[in-house]
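User: quick one - fold this with S-adenosyl-L-homocysteine bound?
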Amino acid sequence: MNPAPQKTSLYGMTPEELTGQLKEAGMPAFRGKQLLDWVYRKRASSWQQMLNLPQSMREWLDTHYRLLPSKHVLTKQAGDITEKLLVELEDSRYVETVLIRYPQKGVGQEDSRSTVCVSSQVGCAYGCKFCASGLDGWKRNLSTGEILAQLVHVCDLEASRGVESTDNLPFDNIVFMGMGEPLANYDAVMGAITALNADWGMNFGARRITISTSGLVPQILKLAEEPIQFRLAISLHGATNESRSSIMPVNRKYPLEELIPAAEKFSQKHGRMLTLEFILIKGINDSMSEAKSLSEIAKRLHAHVNLIPYNQVEGLSWERSNLSRQQAFAEVLRRENISHTIRKEKGHSIDAACGQLRLRKEREREA
Ligand code: SAH
Ligand code: SF4
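Assistant: Sure. Structure tokens for the protein plus S-adenosyl-L-homocysteine:
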């Protein structure tokens, strides 16, 4: 394992921290502004690019700081829709970042909408039985800088292909649906969302950011008080305590009778529509009575339901519900007037179910 990093990454420092440190080193506050501009807007890859900073300051920066706290080491592509970036952290651990392109035709022009799916932890402690991220347990939280760096790696990848993005990020949405439970790493995730959304940061619209959670009730209540207008998705995956607890151990700690009122409070306070994610797993949660219970929950929460056909995970025996069952399940929601979508499969062939690529790489290395 590498020795602990000596230099702090500039990604993840607040403007106050940065200007405080510059001031201590005898530099004026406006240098902090210039530096943030190089970091977040221009996404400089070296100190030497920062031509409006004096050479002596660039040298000082080089001895005390680093730009990115991680490296993008591998890209895997599935058709032209999904790409997975394997990112190596300074302690040699891996996380995954996924770029999903939804080709969309606009009026008279070809539009392209894309989403980046970021990781918030290495591994996950919640051990949902269908998920690759939790298979080897939780390793550690990501820092704010490590979360933001995943987005910079995507920007760099797109820039290497000529996708211009100096002032805007080259994607439309960011979802915290990669590895880890974002609400178990609350402060670092909120730090990243703050920097993404801020004028001094990446200036990315909060409504285009979605946090997905397996349902940590105290943190959902805390989120309800946050001023930034991000969206929330709840991984429901079971519409009764019985089915949910059988695949999500977290439901024993925070059962539906606690989770649903917390979700209700979030949507009331935040004034945003919630999404309920529901993976369809054959014989586990795909019965018609489950669909009926799900409709009742969605109605109460005025939530949109995202049905996700289960993605096979190596080493797990669960199977996806077949197409006719998926359609029958959706038909129950339709009859109940529940807004819903069935997610199309994306990136199955590159281990897109969260955590699989990283797990394979770490196991290869251990072997
Ligand atoms: N920990 C958070 C966010 C990461 S998981 C959460 O659980 O919400 C992001 C989404 O991917 C969750 O809805 C999760 O349930 C889903 N997921 C995990 N494994 C999957 C699989 N094998 N197939 C389809 N979706 C999966
Ligand atoms: Fe963790 Fe989410 Fe996977 Fe559950 S679904 S193990 S909470 S990453």
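One thing worth noting: The chain has two domains: 10-66, 70-366.
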